[in-house]
Design goal:
23% helix; 296 residues; binds zinc ion; seven-stranded mixed β-sheet; Metallo-beta-lactamase, Chain A
């Protein structure tokens, strides 16, 4: 840590796109959550500028309403009407990461020109598909398209003083490309990498992502390959938790708690097996928890 922190970053959800309970899952993971009334939201991060009170939301999930409510509650302060946050940043066009934008349009919040930062391909997708296109045309959301280009990275500032680097990552690019974000405050830099097919897809990908980063939220969708009966995991690839832990064992041991596992599929035993969770923490990794705050 160097300078005085200026930004707070709260985790607003830690699940894969479908959250938990997960539609159609009748296994104990979700039946249990239903019985206990537990709801876990898809992964999202909320950032506050302590000086200006400005708010940024990373990912617009299908749970955007409770997540912005949580952010507003944690951040406190007054907000101008029809301006629940000052900027939104999107990693890619899978539903857990952008579908919630529809609540910003005419039918619901009808927000007033909220900037939405994404890649050029993602912006083209939003501009040409309803209902998001309607929110763009009516000026509820203002697309800020950034091009990571050949180099694979591009910088922007969603709030003055909050420097963000978007880094291209390999992922099923169904409707858009995919990025991870390095969010730089004066004190610390946080990596947000919810969806990656494989760390080994590009040589040095993981090293590049973690270079000059103090804290990292990492894709931990599946623990192992036998977790999702009836689904072909080769069609929805993610690095398995065991593989990530092997690759990052030294770093986790050297800086315990700075590597946080997130984007959990409802089936992931990390959420359901306390013994397993304990051993992960003992090895220096953290299991992401909604509500956690870091100062950047
Ligand atoms: Zn996802
Ligand atoms: Zn389940
Ligand atoms: Zn995805």
């Amino acid at each position: 840590m160097n300078a005085e922190p200026r930004f707070d970053a709260w985790l607003l959800g830690r699940m894969q796109d479908g959250g938990m309970p997960h539609l159609g899952c009748e296994a104990p993971c979700c039946e249990d959550a239903r019985r206990r009334g537990v709801v876990e939201h898809p992964c999202s991060l909320g950032i506050r500028d302590r000086r200006s009170g400005g708010l940024v939301l990373i990912e617009a999930t299908p749970s955007i309403e409770p997540q912005i409510a949580m952010l507003r509650n944690l951040a406190g302060g007054e907000r101008p009407p029809r301006r629940p946050v000052d900027a939104v940043m999107l990693t890619h066009a899978h539903i857990g990461h952008y579908a919630g934008l529809m609540h910003l349009g005419q039918e619901v919040a009808a927000v007033d020109g909220v900037p939405v930062h994404c890649t050029v391909r993602m912006a083209a997708f939003l501009k040409s598909n309803a209902p998001w296109s309607g929110a763009v045309e009516a000026g509820h959301i203002m697309l800020h398209a950034h091009d990571p280009g050949e180099v694979g990275t591009v910088e922007f500032e969603p709030l003055p003083g909050l420097r963000v680097e978007a880094v291209r990552v390999p992922h099923r690019d169904d409707y858009s490309d995919t990025v991870a974000f390095k969010v730089r405050g004066p004190s610390q830099t946080l990596l947000w990498a919810p969806d990656v097919d494989q760390w080994g897809r590009h040589e040095d990908l993981l090293d590049d992502l973690l270079a000059d980063v103090d804290l990292a939220y990492l894709d931990a969708t599946f623990y192992s390959g036998d977790e999702c009966p009836g689904r072909d995991l080769s069609l929805i690839p993610h690095p398995f938790v065991g593989e990530t832990m092997e690759l990052l064992a030294d770093r986790a041991a050297a800086s315990p708690g700075t590597l946080r596992l997130m984007h959990f599929n409802h089936s992931n035993p990390v959420l359901h097996d306390p013994e397993l969770a304990r051993s992960i923490v003992e090895q220096g990794f953290a299991i992401a928890e909604a509500g956690r705050c870091d100062r950047l």
